[in-house]
Amino acid sequence: MRPILPTIVMIGFMGSGKTSVGRLVARSLGREFVDTDPLVERWARMSIAEIFHLEGEEGFRRREIGAIDFAISAPGRVVAVGGGAVLSAENRTALKQAGFLVYLRATPETLAARLAGTTDRPLLNTGDRVGRIRDLLVARGPIYETAGDAAIDTDRFTLEQTATEVLDWYHRRVGELAVR
Ligand code: S3P
Predict the structure, then answer these.
(1) How confident is the model at residue 3 (pLDDT cuts 50, 70, 90)?
(2) Is residue 22 lining ligand 1, measured as CB closer than 6 Å?
(3) Pocket test for ligand 1, best of 119, 123, 136, 144 (most atoms within 8 A of CB)
(4) Measuring from atom 9 of ligand 1, which residue has the nearest CA?
């Protein structure tokens, strides 16, 4: 059974707009917004790049579980998780129990364009970024698709338009549940 006031979780690849869209959705619904990446950084007193450097991806993933636990510890929040969070079955289960997962979908080209000039994602520190994004998406795409209760194509949308799509979907879904 889903909780009365479900958490709304933004999932998707780096650069898909999870943080910006999540913030807009939270503001519109009057909900609290929690972004797990900055939470990990604050608690660790290190940047994600430093955590990857000192503790490897494994260390980061351990810390990320703690941030997810916190994010879903109160009902009704809007949550943005890092792009790799739902690769773990445990995280997927925990997030699903808390509410709905919304996948913000985008093509590798869109993602690379949105991420142009950024250097703070250790997994993308490589020469051929689009190639790297494409490779990661081959592995991750099916997981995002399966995990998401909804998937929204964001390529042609502004952040505001994407937020509106999320809100429309959410209201429809909550409405459907109410009449059952
Ligand atoms: C990661 C995505 C990042 C951050 C870390 C790892 C990933 O978050 O958690 O660099 O594995 O996709 P964003 O998706 O918010 O960029």
Answers:
(1) low
(2) no
(3) 123
(4) 82
pLDDT of residue 1 exceeding 70, the answer is no
99 CB less than 6 Å from ligand 1?
Answer: no
**CA–CA separation, 163 and 25 (whole Å):** 6
Predicted pLDDT at 4:
77
| pTM of the full structure | 0.96
Q: What is the mean pLDDT of the chain?
A: 96
Q: Is 14 in the pocket of ligand 1 (CB under 6 A)?
A: yes
Grade residue 2 by pLDDT with cuts at 50, 70 and 90. Answer: low
Position in ligand 1 atom list of the atom nearest CA 35: 15
Q: How far is the CA of 83 from the centre of ligand 1 (A)?
A: 4
Q: Which atom of ligand 1 is nearest to the CA of 84?
A: 11
